[in-house]
Specification:
137 residues, alpha+beta, Nucleoside Triphosphate Pyrophosphohydrolase, 2 helices, 8 strands
């Protein structure tokens, strides 16, 4: 099974969430969380920090990620690991490809016309709000 990750990056004031606007499929033109592929043999947490730095310039010195939850899609032969963290300081972001933006937590993350993931982003935000962020690594 191919592994992927999604990384929920909260602004240091915990009032905004980091998104990228997809320039290509899947989800072209929609907002999505940052993340990417887990390489064969690569620990998931290492892949999350690698992808985060590649896509945003945020390093392990800037944030501590917690492994919050996973989704397994047997019919698609893949799984997605979800990581959450809060920036330690305000910092400039460096987009690799997809433009980055901060969004208020007041957004409707279940809006299927704006947000990727068939409602999963809304579900993940609710899980953080209700149950916390998981185990820090």
């Amino acid at each position: 099974m191919q592994g992927y990750n999604c990384i929920m990056v909260y602004h240091q004031q915990n009032d905004r969430l980091l998104f990228c606007k997809r320039l290509k499929d899947p989800y072209k033109g929609m907002y999505n969380l940052v993340g990417g592929k887990i390489e064969p043999g690569e620990p998931g947490i290492c892949a999350a920090y690698r992808e985060l730095e590649e896509e945003t310039g945020i390093t392990a010195d800037d944030i501590t990620l917690s492994h919050m939850m996973d989704f397994t899609y047997y019919n698609q032969g893949c799984y997605v690991e979800i990581y959450v963290g809060t920036l330690r300081r305000d910092m400039p972001l460096r987009a690799e490809l997809h433009p980055l933006c901060w969004m208020s937590l007041d957004e409707d993350f279940f809006d299927l016309e704006r947000f990727a993931g068939e409602g999963n982003i809304g579900h993940m935000v609710q899980q953080v709000n209700l149950y916390g962020r998981g185990a820090a690594r």
